[in-house]
Design brief:
By secondary structure, the protein is mostly helical. It contains six helices and no strands. Helix 2 runs parallel beside helix 6. The relative contact order is 0.14.
Length: 144
Amino acid sequence: MKKFIFLSVLIISTTFSSCKEVKKAPEGPTQMEKVMAIHDEVMPKMGTIGKLVGELKAKVDTTEMGQKYEVAMKDLQEANTAMMDWMKDFGDRFNSDEILNGKELSEEKQQWLDEEEEKVKVVKEKINGSIERAQTLLAKDTVQ
């Protein structure tokens, strides 16, 4: 009789434990990881921006070409400022647990993350575009 009760309890507990909803780990990167990946992709380019600003600054003057250098330099500086502003705003909205450890976000913070993802994509475009335009302008100068 004791064996029967033991087996019954064992079968019932096994049945219930197997019926529990299994929480699967999300497949692929989370949205937070995607946002941080964009940041991590463009952040190393900040050094390139500084180098290009230095090269362009030396060439700025009142000539037509000098003015083009100034526009390209300001474009790079704006991209740099956009990145710094984005990082500050992002850090103000999310804590390290949410950023680094995948802590679940409130509904409001999820909306913020959606906004921040769009913002960091714009920052990425500004950084890549300004670098490309500056490098193209400087390359034309060396060809002439």
